[in-house]
């Protein structure tokens, strides 16, 4: 969507927000209503939506045109539609020109063309916005309405800064460059030739010692298992979880299960060869038998899910009909919610001590790390 619009790649955040806005207003596969209608109880109206990057004209307020002779004959500012505002009824507009700001306008006319013509030979489809990549990502976000002085900063008088301008690099560009600099070894032989071999060896030792501590090993026989399905909380479920949390003003804590799969017992009889370099002389001719569901086994995810599900049921929680990874119970006359995403666990309750109580039980059973209040989703 961002590439087709011809807009600078630094607007990826607005493209992502707009894609989410649209996705929440269209039905999922196998569903008859949209997520928006499921939450708010009414059908969404998307007939007013322009195409991302479509040219629009935001009206210049009369007060500003009368005050500034520069805009005496200007009734509108040309820009590109980059999404819908959440706090007010209006559109986010990206403007061309020197400042290249992003503002929000309530009075917008849509033009039947894209603002930028996409050149297939131009990288990232920046078009005539090529020099925009040298600017910072801190876009000016403003609200355009009929109040005086509410128009974007490029229409006001520009005061030259005395600071020396420095070329900046966006975070996306930095990560792209970093991925080309750091080369991760593909096997043990490459790791031994790496300048960071000592660190790799320490990491391997820690991993193998962890396997010994849990009594788990890697299997080698080619076996086929019928029951391998393990449910995982979907993105919609996670969003609904946080919607309920915000609506009921609940406390939330996040837990992480280290080496989750090896917490579950393995029912099948599976053997493996020892990890190279860790077999002692007296063990020559012997193999290891798996006692735990080592990651890499086809049934490992299912066995871990069964293990955690049994614990939560014993605690008094019940899975919801819509998603078996979302559990609920009423504790102290208040709702207790638990959302499971493989080895990540979210716990919510109106009383924080109830969250801590469950986290303590999980820690005692599975050595779950209490990560505290979640700060970001991703």
UniProtKB/TrEMBL annotation:
Residue spans of biased composition, Acidic residues class: 120-143
Keyword Metal-binding in record: yes
Keywords on record: Hydrolase, Metal-binding
Taxonomy of the source species: Eukaryota, Sar, Stramenopiles, Oomycota, Peronosporomycetes
Source organism per UniProt: Phytophthora megakarya
Top-level taxon in the UniProt lineage: Eukaryota
Region Disordered: start-end pairs: 119-146
Residue stretches making up the Reverse transcriptase Ty1/copia-type domain: 222-373
Keyword Hydrolase: yes
GO molecular function: hydrolase activity; metal ion binding
Name of the molecule in the record: Putative mitochondrial protein
């Amino acid at each position: 969507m961002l590439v087709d619009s011809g807009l600078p790649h630094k607007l990826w955040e607005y493209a992502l927000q707009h894609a989410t806005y649209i996705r929440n207003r269209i039905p999922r596969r196998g569903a008859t209503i949209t997520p928006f209608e499921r939450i708010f109880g009414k059908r969404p109206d998307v007939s007013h939506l322009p195409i991302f990057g479509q040219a629009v004209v935001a009206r210049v307020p009369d007060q500003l045109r009368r005050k500034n002779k520069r805009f005496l004959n200007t009734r509108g500012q040309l820009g590109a539609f980059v999404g819908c505002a959440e706090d007010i009824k209006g559109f986010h507009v990206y403007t061309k020109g020197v400042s290249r700001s992003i503002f929000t306008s309530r009075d917008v006319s849509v033009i039947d063309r894209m603002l930028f013509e996409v050149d297939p030979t131009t990288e990232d489809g920046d078009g005539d916005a090529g020099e925009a990549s040298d600017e910072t990502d801190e876009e000016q976000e403003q609200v355009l309405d009929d109040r005086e002085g509410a128009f974007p900063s490029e229409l006001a008088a520009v005061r030259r800064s005395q600071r020396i301008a420095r070329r900046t690099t966006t975070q996306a560009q930095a990560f792209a460059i970093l991925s080309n600099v750091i080369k991760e070894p593909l096997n043990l032989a490459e790791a031994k030739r790496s300048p960071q071999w000592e660190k790799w060896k320490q990491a391997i030792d820690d991993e193998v010692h962890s396997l010994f501590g849990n009594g788990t090993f890697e299997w080698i026989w080619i076996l086929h298992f019928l029951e391998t399905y393990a449910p995982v909380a979907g993105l919609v479920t996670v969003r609904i979880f946080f919607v309920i949390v915000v609506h009921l003003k609940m406390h939330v804590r996040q837990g992480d299960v280290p080496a989750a799969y090896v917490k579950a017992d393995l029912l099948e009889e599976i053997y493996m060869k020892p990890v190279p370099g860790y077999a002692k002389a007296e063990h020559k001719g012997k193999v290891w038998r798996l006692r735990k569901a080592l990651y890499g086994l086809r049934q490992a995810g299912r066995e871990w899910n069964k293990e955690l599900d049994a614990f939560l049921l014993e605690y008094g929680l019940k899975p919801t009909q819509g998603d078996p990874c979302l559990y609920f119970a009423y504790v102290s006359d208040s709702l207790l919610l638990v959302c499971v995403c493989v080895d990540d666990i979210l716990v919510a309750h109106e009383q924080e001590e109830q969250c801590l109580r469950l986290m303590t039980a999980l820690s005692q059973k599975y050595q779950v790390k209490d990560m505290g209040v979640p700060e970001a989703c991703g």
